[in-house]
């Protein structure tokens, strides 16, 4: 199949494209940065340079490529800019959906988030309500996720992957990433807030599997939602950071999510079933992950 990957040079796109190529698909990788063309070619895709916010340019690119499936992995997370990321989820997704429908694409697979659910005391399932009444600054993130999911749901066929907090090479949790820096500087406290994690290799493999999944949203997270009082001290020890201070609190929506649907109904099995397995492998073995 002809598959168009938006966000081809991102942390997931770089792992996903080789998987798609190995399966025999013809892949086109979208980027807004000309400097990423070489990387996209190296991993097996045809680069397409286009600004996702330029609606006419996106439609023109789709008319030229004529994809059969669109995979939306676009984010703006490297600088932790919530407004930019929400803009991509809102306007960027709108342009991708409109371009897809203009040229007759039936199926779209899109990245969303598993921490968008409203507060509760148990891990969220796909039937749990999204936190649409959240105050700012969380509201910006939730509104972006809702806009993305609503737009993608207009497609004839669609899968919305609600990823856990991504970790692995080149993510915030990489030893040279933003979270690592904050932990080394003791700017993060170990709280009671519950997190569901996901290694980027498992995110890529789930996206590949979603080519065959039925319509709807599905949580793609590991098996073990975990409080900050447990994961953060272990993470700090792996990166050689000081023991984090403990604070008895949590933020709105920190409840974790259940992957029962992905595992039991779709047969998805993560390489790293728990954050502990993944942290130990990715942080203590030079980030060499077998895919």
UniProtKB/TrEMBL annotation:
Taxonomy, superkingdom: Bacteria
Residue ranges occupied by any NAD-dependent epimerase/dehydratase domain in the UniProt entry: 3-216
Pfam families with a match to the protein in the record: Epimerase
A GO molecular-function descriptor: aldehyde dehydrogenase (NAD+) activity
GO cellular component, one term: cytoplasm
InterPro entries xrefs: Epimerase_deHydtase, NAD(P)-bd_dom_sf, NAD(P)-dependent_oxidoreduct
Gene3D superfamilies in the cross-refs: NAD(P)-binding Rossmann-like Domain (3.40.50.720)
Family matches, as SUPFAM superfamilies: NAD(P)-binding Rossmann-fold domains (SSF51735)
Name recorded for this polypeptide: NAD-dependent epimerase/dehydratase family protein
Natural source organism: Ornithinibacillus sp. 4-3
């Amino acid at each position: 199949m002809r598959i168009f990957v938006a966000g081809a040079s991102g942390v997931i796109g770089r792992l996903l494209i080789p998987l798609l190529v190995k399966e025999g698909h013809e892949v086109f990788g979208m980027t807004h940065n000309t400097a990423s063309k070489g990387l996209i070619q190296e991993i097996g895709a045809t680069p397409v340079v286009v600004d996702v916010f330029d609606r006419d340019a996106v439609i023109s690119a789709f008319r030229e490529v004529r994809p059969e499936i669109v995979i939306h992995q676009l984010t703006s997370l490297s600088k932790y800019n919530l407004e930019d990321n929400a803009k991509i989820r809102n306007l960027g997704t709108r342009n991708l959906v409109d371009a897809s429908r203009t040229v007759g694409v039936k199926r779209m697979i899109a990245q969303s988030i598993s921490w968008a659910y409203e507060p509760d005391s148990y891990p969220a399932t796909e039937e749990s309500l999204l936190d649409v009444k959240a105050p700012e600054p969380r509201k910006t993130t939730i509104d972006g996720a809702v806009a993305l999911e609503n737009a993608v749901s207009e497609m004839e066929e669609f899968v919305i992957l609600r990823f856990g907090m991504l970790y692995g090479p080149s993510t915030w949790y990489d030893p040279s990433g933003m979270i690592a820096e904050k932990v080394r500087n003791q700017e993060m406290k170990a709280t009671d807030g519950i997190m569901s994690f996901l290694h980027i290799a498992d995110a890529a493999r789930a996206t590949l599997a979603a080519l065959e999944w039925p319509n709807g949203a599905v949580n793609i997270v590991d098996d073990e939602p975990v409080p900050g009082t447990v994961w953060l001290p272990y993470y700090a020890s792996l990166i050689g950071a000081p023991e984090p201070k403990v604070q008895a609190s949590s933020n709105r929506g920190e409840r974790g999510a259940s992957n029962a649907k992905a595992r039991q109904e779709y047969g998805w099995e993560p390489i790293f079933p728990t954050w502990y397995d993944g942290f130990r492998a990715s942080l203590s073995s030079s980030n060499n992950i077998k895919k």
